[in-house]
Amino acid sequence: METEYDQVLRSVSKVKIADQVGDSGEGSRDVDDVVVSCFTEVFDDVTLQFQFIRLPKQIYVWVGCNSAKFGNLYAAASTRPSNTVSVTSVLGGTSDNTGSGIARRLVMKTGLNIILACNIPKNNPLLEAKAEKVLIRKLIDLGYTMSTPLRAT
């Protein structure tokens, strides 16, 4: 009998527009291309699903925890003239900082606008930290980070 986890893995493996990095000629990829990456990580019996959609001047990130629920939606961008990062909650998330902190740090790391949908439980900071670590590692692997990140002021 196939478990829910196996179903998710099977459906994600069918979507082979993910992870277009490597021998596929990354150097020739145009900055205006839309790139979609999907992957799954398992931490202490908790399944985290990730999806990146790289648009010309922003990145959409979805982080799902044990389900495909959309979660809270945050928008973050650097503001001028001081290059501070502003974050707003677009849907839900008025009383927790789970997604807003991740979105803020992703903007500082990439220099791009970030739209983050996140359904990580707010009472699990360890899981949030692990998810953010995986996100940053993947952004570095995909070449989406700046050489010198924005500084928080």
Any overview of this molecule?
- There is one protein chain.
- This protein is of the alpha+beta class.
- The chain contains three helices and six strands.
- A six-stranded mixed sheet has the order 1-2-3-6-4-5, sandwiched between helices.
- A hairpin with a 2-residue loop joins strand 2 (about 45-55) and strand 3.
- It is globular, with a radius of gyration of 16 Å.
- Mean pLDDT is about 80; it is low at about 15-30.
H/E element sequence: HEEEEEHEH
Mean pLDDT across all amino acids: 79
Q: Per CATH, what is the topology?
A: Ribosomal Protein S5, domain 2
Number of domains: 1
Which strand-content bin applies to the residues?
A: 25-35%
Helicity, as a percent range: 25-40%
Pfam families: PAC4
Organism: Eutrema salsugineum
InterPro entries: PAC4
GO biological process, one term: proteasome assembly
